[in-house]
Each structure stands twice: as C-alpha cells, then as structure tokens.
TrEMBL record:
It comes from Halorubellus litoreus. InterPro entries: ArsR-like_HTH, HVO_1552_C, WH-like_DNA-bd_sf, WH_DNA-bd_sf. This is ArsR/SmtB family transcription factor. Residues 109-222 form the HVO-1552 C-terminal domain. Keywords: Membrane, Transmembrane, Transmembrane helix. It comes from the Archaea. Pfam families: HTH_20, HVO_1552_C. The chain crosses the membrane at residues 126-144, 203-222.
Amino acid sequence: MADLLPSTPDTSAVEDAEPRVIGLDSEDADDLIGALSSGTARELLTALHEDPATPSKLADRVDTSLQNTQYHLEKLEDADVIEVIDTAYSAKGREMKVYAPANQPLVVFAGGEEKSTGLKAALTRLLGAFALLAGLSVLVQALAGDLGALFGGDAGVGRPAPGPGEAPVAGNANNSTVETTTAATDAATSAADAALNAVPPGVAFFLGGALVLAAGFAYWYTTSA
C-alpha cells in the first residue's frame, strides 16, 4: 500500500466543464463578486485553471497558508466557481480533496437574461468548433508528413552543384554574370523554402481557422448587440 502513495488524482472531469455566463444583475453575481473580492482568491482560481490541485499544493503555489487557502476555497465552492473532482492521498495516507474550476470559461456579462443565454450558447459552439479545428489540424499535419515521406521530402531535381574543378571559361565575360545570377536565385529560393518550412502545415491550418472563427464570433457579437 505504501508503494501506491501518494496517489495521482483523476482530472479528466475538467475536460467536460462547460462555459458559464453570469449576468451582473443576477443573484449569482453577488456570490461570485464576494468570493473573488480577495486577491488571494483570484490567484487560487487562476492556479486551478492552470492545473487542478489539492489545498496544500495550492497554498505552495500562491505562497499563502493552508488555513487561508481552505477559507477561500470554501467561498469559491459556495459560489459554484470551483468543485471537488477527485480525492487523492498523501504519502502519509491522508485523504485530500482535489479542486478544479466548475466551468470553463467563466464569463461575467452585463446584459439581459436573453443575451446571457445566447452568449453561453455561442461560447459552447465556439469551443466545440475550436476542438474540431484542433483535430483537423492534427490530421492535416499527419497527412503532410505522410505525403512528404511518400515523395521523399525534398525530391525536386535542382541544378547540380559545380564540381571543385569547374571554373568560368577565361575570356567569356558572361560566365561571371550567369554564376552571380544563379547564386542569387538559389539564395532566394532557399530563403522562401525556409520560411515555408518554419511553420508546420498543421499549425498554419489551425491559426488560419482560429482567425476565421474569431472573426465570425466578433461579427456575431457586434451584430446581435
């Protein structure tokens, strides 16, 4: 049993968290603002968004006492901002709660209830679209890698490099100009290839798709306001 301690918590529930939109004129906003009025509470919530943790680990990460950490965690839990997702055990066998954000993301919205509901639905669709985009980006990167291997990567046939014994023919003034022009062209081609290869296809696909999604969301938000 001692070899199994400390245990590793199961944090898979964080992936199932849904967005939450709180209107400033709602009752939930009072609890939320009260829970987040302290700077320590905000630091704890930020730390939990980075990685779920036990109170003792959170106390170390935000540099505060365990008692102060537990106090703010209780207030955040009462406001439904965080929740217990699992139980872990320390090296001494002590049972510890593992906290995580109850919602991702958490949005405080100034507007009517109808707009708040519409914003939550839009955020849910947007996050789903980003998840789909990430999966497609991985597929694009995999296909690009397979195609590169299929065609042998840099399989293009270029101009053969001059041998060590080759030199411009004496008396021909065009040789120097041709060699200089060819060298400049090769340098420009190499620079262009390096620029294209600097960004993997999957990353380029994701960035382009993210830009389109962000622009679409911004357009929806401005037109529906």
